[in-house]
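user: Please supply your own:

assistant:
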Amino acid sequence: MENRNGLLVQTFLTEANSRAERDAALLMMEAIPSGKRVTLAGDKNYDTREFVEELRGMNITPHVAQNDKSRRSAVDQRTTRHPGYEISQRKRKRIEQSFGWMKMVGMLRKVKLRGIDKVGWLLTTSADCET
């Protein structure tokens, strides 16, 4: 999702496992042309050392929420000291609003289709209608 206007840019459906969201995010980030520095916002699930290092290697600034309840966060002062990090954290709710719309209006609350291809089609179509 593009943070300024809340525009859903790309969707990607995976089978649920402990790494699926992070792996899908990395695949989508590889499609971004290199050269211009970009940021990636995410919730606490994305705050892992491996994921943050991979993003930094791709010239992407990780604006993920810090998960420092029982461990040290992988997002350090290089990122959190800038005002843009705080703004990204406030704008993160827009993706949740999009998910809420897709569940209520876009028929994703109780999916009646089976299979990754069909459910992926429904997700992409619902995301396109939401914007």
